[in-house]
Design goal:
single chain, about 350 residues, alpha+beta, Alpha-Beta Plaits, MutS, DNA mismatch repair protein, domain I, DNA polymerase, domain 1, 4 domains, six-stranded antiparallel β-sheet, about 35% helix, about 20% strand
Amino acid sequence: MRKIVHVDMDAFYASVEQRDAPELRGRPLVVAWRGARSVVCAASYEARRFGVRSAMPAVRAERLCPDAVFVPPDFTRYRAVSRQVREIFRRHTDLVEPLSLDEAYLDVTENKLGLASATDVATEIRRQIRDELKLTASAGIAPNKFLAKIASDWNKPDGQFVIKPAQVSAFLTALPVGRIPGVGKVMDAKLEALGIRTVGQLRELERPVLEARFGRYGGRLYELARGVDEHPVVPDRPVQSISSEDTLAEDQPLAALAPLIERLAQKTWEASRKTSRVPRTVVLKLKTGDFRNLTRSLTPSTPPDSAAVLAQIALALCNRVDLPESTRYRLVGVGLGNFHEPGDAESQSGLFLDEQSPD
């Protein structure tokens, strides 16, 4: 049985800013550029008390918390601190799977320091982060990644929570289904239509029923409802997607976005040349003026082999946006996904499922 720790830095960007500028400590802090087009990158816990959250429009954050201090993000500094955090992780295990700059999974089934338990490892990691970096982190300890990630959010900030194998079933029974990875607003509404609000209620449905209604993800729901997650911690995970996006100075109609889509395609293509893996899928991302997110994707029979081809496919995906011509868009993105190794003969031709959901 694995021993998995999920470490999540507390309000990472905002905490780095407060650490490095003592005058900001204890004050509501928003990491974002000011302006009508900006979104919140991070918010200190002082700002969160006013309802400020990441990905919120900056103008709304300012309305919710007029006294907040706005600081522009410094990703170069955040990446440097993230590397220091990962150095601490690797003192304990080489099985570290970063999810972003501020969180990672660690497999500590065997740990380098010979500590007695995964709980001890998590405690020591958090102590080292606090003492050496003057930051705080929260941790979840569990038999698998799914449970560890849920647990890391249980005693935030600056806390940790353990789900022991014998506690899994009881812990999950009353858990809202919205806490399951992949259950967003759309899936949550579908489950609610079935009268399912808790994992315990979800557990009452058999695998064939869930798979018939939700396809492959139905099988995943069946397993997670029982606390089953066999995915290992994978260090240095191969690239799966690359994208570029831009927020417009003013909302624009879809017909006016072609030049920007071409520039983003060029930027994404250049970034994709840094890996030897080959992308199968082209993704067009749009956000409307009222913050509704849409994605359109296509997996052609032959992977795109140039920036021009990538741009051509992305522009063609615009034809599958079925909103009124009067709709205005504030953000555009072009991405490549579904990467595979060169020489992989497996083909996945055909159209990928559209996703159309509000922000």
